[in-house]
Amino acid sequence: VKETGKNNYRWFSDTIEDIRTRRMLIEQFLKDAINGEELTLHYQPKWDLVQNKIAGVEALLRWTNPQLGHVSPYEFIPIAESSGIINDMGEWIMRTACRQFVAWQKQSPGMSLIVAINISGVQLLQPNFIERIQGVFTDENVDPCHFELEVTESFAIENFEEVINILVELRNLGFMISIDDFGAGYSSMKYVCQLPIQCMKIDKTLIDQLADNVRSQVVVSTLIEMAHRLKLTVVAEGVELPEQLHLLRTYRCDQIQGFLISKPVPADRVIELLHTNDLV
Ligand code: C2E
Ligand code: CA
Ligand code: CA
Ligand code: CA
User: Fold this and answer.
1) What is the ipTM of this complex?
2) pTM for the complete prediction?
3) Quick one: which of 11, 61, 156, 167 has the fewest CB in 10 Å?
4) How far apart, in whole angstroms, are the C-alpha atoms of residue 59 and residue 200?
């Protein structure tokens, strides 16, 4: 073992320990966060390019802990999944989004707004997921037809048949189903062919390259055409630049989401955004 090797080892082991400690802290604090005031939902609009209005909003979880500060969902969602916390957390998310939807309807009667929530694969595959989600929507007196469930394809690999069955049941309850992050990582045409989905969300990584990579222009325009022939609504996510918007318009993309339109905002700002017609 070289001297530098030894140093590397020490540095490496400290880092692993730091990571472990942080994971443990996150897991421990997250358990209490669900019943406290630390979690909130922010909402990011989906802009309809045909109707020129906000078609819906996606609920995105935010967590600020007194000790840890703001923690990104990219960091804590995987920990919530591996520890099983995601199941109770997911129920909190559904319930909170339902109550918020009811509040918006009171504030702005007659509005048409689809609320999307992210459903983790672990959450979807818990034994009583259907009973749980049905329970929440019954309790809160919300018709599932106002809600969309965004699911990622990564989980479907091992439990494909089971996932199809669950999604069919959710569909029968009235939920819309979107395949999230399409074009990233695990994308398979099998999912598009066999999952009972109504909407495809094209991943930000494909949109990022759109303005300066001719190949990604071919890929994205072809994906949109394919989705349309499958009667799917297409949402492009992570749109930040006017050039990207311009190209997506020429490809007849249905909806866009991204900082160009709006960042995710607290619930009380959503009604204000709904009445702004110059977001684009
Ligand atoms: P996602 O579902 O793909 O959500 C989109 C992420 O991209 C969000 O990050 C959003 O804030 C961000 N984003 C949107 N537009 C832009 C843009 O134009 N530029 C850039 N740079 N970013 C943009 P966020 O809120 O940090 O969430 C990260 C991921 O964590 C989400 O990715 C989702 O997989 C997961 N997540 C967030 N909230 C929930 C939740 O309530 N439940 C579950 N299961 N997962 C969640
Ligand atoms: Ca999503
Ligand atoms: Ca996404
Ligand atoms: Ca994503």
Assistant:
1) 0.98
2) 0.93
3) 11
4) 17
